[in-house]
């Protein structure tokens, strides 16, 4: 009963609604209905042309696979300039069977004098084995890792520290963890390769300023500031980073940290400082450039350093406030996706930190040695010394020769001849993809244990060889 | 954070809306919201439909066309920082299945609302304006385009 009465009622109501409506309403509704139908029928366009069967086969026929291994040039520097090193690397190093004074590797503090480090590492192997078998977040955390992080934070007088398993990936992961596609990075031209890769990985816009040239940096900051004034909405969402090294491994120069810190607060930058060389070498307690130049820890947003140079272990670390460090535990790719440091090397780093804390005099000794080398090595007739006087890394450049290929040949020959005469110095190798290829040089690293006689002897050998080669 | 992927992975911010479960949830959510409105004695049927339609379109506009980026820090170095959710759907491919569905829903809801409000002029104008707000930014020609640089960065 009910149905028969209500059904015509609905239809008449529908009829009333539709035919009493104004024309524009009906028109709009009808076109919307058509739009829905069109959307349902419309096919998704991929923007790709569909190929016929012949065309597809043609493409497959023309495809030639690239060989897995290409032919290698037999004169490739990696094949030709090989040296074989025996035994432990300390103050002396055995290269190709010749015992040489070591001015080539980055063990500045001569920690081989302390057998305690080796003992603690061996004890650690007996307890944990050789590997940690997993990333930190995936069964790879051993108590020594936590201890090392705590100790590093305490040593650097910061809130927290995060330890990476490889020094290269420390800063190369830390930069892209913060700086994204829409941000800007201001970086020194001579930053090391790890920083360059970190900047690349961040996909941010990068502005390089001239090496240690604060005027150039300020000029570029002012340029950016002018751009920001034109588009304040964009500027409000853009983060600006400043990346510098404490002591530049590629030049041996120290960064003018006080000026950098001033510019940081003036232009609201976030300052990342890489202390690959300067950690454990300069400053009264070896805390690096912030300690040496008395810069407050809050003025530098993130400090990253290597455990492979002064500490003579493996790995690297970042220190900073709680926020800075915790962010990397999920966003630092080198931290998340790489197996953690082997526990025994972590233990070795802890033991090295014990020595740093108990015997801060070693840093003064290293600085004195570096200054002595600096004084003597200024007097080469064919070579020119560059680098900060207390820097443990210095570079020797050829005087009066600019052509880089010619320099490379001569410097390689000098390095080889020096090894034959019992002095190991390294020709500073760079990859061809380096952003601003540094000037060709011999890299001198200073060991704390070098005596004055050693330095004089090294000077004599280098002077003699360079005179005969050039 | 997507660990251990080999090859291309879908944008996790937009691929969850592909699932059928999402559309079931969508339908139930809107229906329940509407039924609650209808059950309130001081709201007329026309008013309930208009409120449902407006609420639906406002949330469409806010969630699909105003919020940008992803709620977490992704490993793609901020590829989607300046993209709205609508632009992230299917990596920007136009007229995909998901887009068709999300494009049609507000229109169908609008037509139903017009019917139940008996094409009353005030209701019609309000609902139509809200419909324009959710349809225009969905058009392919508005992909990555911001009128007067509103909400650009």
UniProtKB/TrEMBL annotation, chain A:
Record pathway: Lipid metabolism; sphingolipid metabolism; Sphingolipid metabolism
Gene3D superfamilies in the record: Aspartate Aminotransferase, domain 1 (3.90.1150.10), Type I PLP-dependent aspartate aminotransferase-like (Major domain) (3.40.640.10)
TM region(s), chain numbering: 17-41
EC number of this enzyme: 2.3.1.50
Domain Aminotransferase class I/classII large: 99-459
UniProt entry tagged with the keyword Transferase: yes
A Pfam family reported for this protein in Swiss-Prot or TrEMBL: Aminotran_1_2
Cofactor: pyridoxal 5'-phosphate
SUPFAM superfamilies, alphabetized: PLP-dependent transferases
Any one biological process term the GO annotation gives: sphingosine biosynthetic process
A GO molecular-function annotation: serine C-palmitoyltransferase activity
Keyword entries, A-Z: Acyltransferase, Lipid metabolism, Membrane, Pyridoxal phosphate, Sphingolipid metabolism, Transferase, Transmembrane, Transmembrane helix
GO cellular component terms given for this protein: endoplasmic reticulum; membrane
Family, similarity comment: Belongs to the class-II pyridoxal-phosphate-dependent aminotransferase family.
Name of the protein this chain belongs to: Serine palmitoyltransferase 1
Natural source organism: Polypedilum vanderplanki
UniProtKB/TrEMBL annotation, chain B:
Keywords: Membrane, Transmembrane, Transmembrane helix
Alphabetical list of InterPro entries matching this protein: ORMDL
A biological process term (GO) from this entry: regulation of ceramide biosynthetic process
Main location group: membrane
Pfam families, A to Z: ORMDL (PF04061)
Gene Ontology CC entries for this record: endoplasmic reticulum membrane
Keyword Transmembrane attached: yes
TM annotation in the entry: 23-43, 123-142
Membrane topology: Multi-pass membrane protein
Signal peptide (UniProt feature, chain positions): none
Localization: Membrane
Family: Belongs to the ORM family.
Protein name per its UniProtKB record: ORM1-like protein
Native organism taxonomy: Eukaryota, Metazoa, Ecdysozoa, Arthropoda, Hexapoda
């Amino acid at each position: 009963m009910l149905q028969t009465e209500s059904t015509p009622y609905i239809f008449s109501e529908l009829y009333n609604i539709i035919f009493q409506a104004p024309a524009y309403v009906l028109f709009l509704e009808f076109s919307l209905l058509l739009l829905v139908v069109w959307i349902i029928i419309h096919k998704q366009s991929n923007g790709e042309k569909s190929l016929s069967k012949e065309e597809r086969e043609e493409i497959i026929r023309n495809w030639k696979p690239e060989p897995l291994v290409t032919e290698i040039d037999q004169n490739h520097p990696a094949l030709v300039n090989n040296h074989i090193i025996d035994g432990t690397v300390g103050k002396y190093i055995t290269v190709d069977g010749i015992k040489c004074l070591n001015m080539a590797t980055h063990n500045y503090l001569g920690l081989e004098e302390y057998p305690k480090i080796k003992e603690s590492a061996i004890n650690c192997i007996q307890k944990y084995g050789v590997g940690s078998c997993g990333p930190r977040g995936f069964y790879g955390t051993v108590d020594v890792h936590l201890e090392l992080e705590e100790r590093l934070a305490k040593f650097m007088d910061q809130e927290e520290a995060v330890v990476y398993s490889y020094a290269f990936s420390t800063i190369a992961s830390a930069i892209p963890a913060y700086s994204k596609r829409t941000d800007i990075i201001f970086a020194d031209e001579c930053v090391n390769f790890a920083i360059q890769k970190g900047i690349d990985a961040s996909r941010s816009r990068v502005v390089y300023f001239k090496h240690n040239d604060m005027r150039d940096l300020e000029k570029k900051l002012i340029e950016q500031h002018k751009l920001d004034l034109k588009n304040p909405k964009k500027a409000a969402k853009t983060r600006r980073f400043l990346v510098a090294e404490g002591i530049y491994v590629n030049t041996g120069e120290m960064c003018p940290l006080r000026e950098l810190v001033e510019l940081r607060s003036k232009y609201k930058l976030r300052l990342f400082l890489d202390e690959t060389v300067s950690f454990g070498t300069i400053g009264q307690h070896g805390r690096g450039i912030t300690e040496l130049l008395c810069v407050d820890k809050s003025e530098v947003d993130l400090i990253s350093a290597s455990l492979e140079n002064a500490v003579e272990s493996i790995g690297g670390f970042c220190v900073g406030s709680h926020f800075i460090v915790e962010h990397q535990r999920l966003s630092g790719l080198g931290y998340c996706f790489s197996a953690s440091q082997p526990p025994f090397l972590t233990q070795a780093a802890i033991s090295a930190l014990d020595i740093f804390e108990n015997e801060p005099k070693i840093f003064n000794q290293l600085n004195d040695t570096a200054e002595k080398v600096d004084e003597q090595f200024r007097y080469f007739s064919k070579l020119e010394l560059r680098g900060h006087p207390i820097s443990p890394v210095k570079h020797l450049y050829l005087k009066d020769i600019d052509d880089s290929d010619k320099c490379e040949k001569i410097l390689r020959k000098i390095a080889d001849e020096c090894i034959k005469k019992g002095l190991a110095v390294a020709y500073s190798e760079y990859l061809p993809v380096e952003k601003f290829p540094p000037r060709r040089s011999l890299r001198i690293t200073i060991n704390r244990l070098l005596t004055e006689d050693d330095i004089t002897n090294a000077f004599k050998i280098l002077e003699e060889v360079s005179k005969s080669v050039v | 954070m997507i660990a251990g992927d080999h090859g291309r992975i879908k944008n996790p911010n937009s691929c969850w809306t592909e699932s059928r479960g999402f559309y079931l949830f969508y339908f139930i959510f809107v229906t329940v919201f509407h039924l609650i409105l209808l059950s309130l004695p001081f709201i007329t049927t026309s008013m309930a439909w208009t409120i449902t339609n407006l609420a639906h379109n406002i949330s469409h506009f806010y969630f699909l066309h105003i919020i940008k980026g992803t709620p977490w820090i992704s490993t793609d170095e901020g590829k989607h920082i300046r993209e709205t959710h609508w632009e992230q759907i299917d990596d920007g491919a136009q007229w995909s299945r998901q887009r068709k569905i999300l494009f049609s829903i507000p229109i169908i809801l609008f037509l139903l609302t017009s019917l139940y409000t008996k094409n009353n002029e005030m209701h019609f104008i309000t609902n139509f304006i809200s419909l324009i707000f959710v349809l225009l930014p969905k058009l392919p020609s508005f992909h990555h385009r911001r009128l007067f640089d509103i909400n650009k960065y």
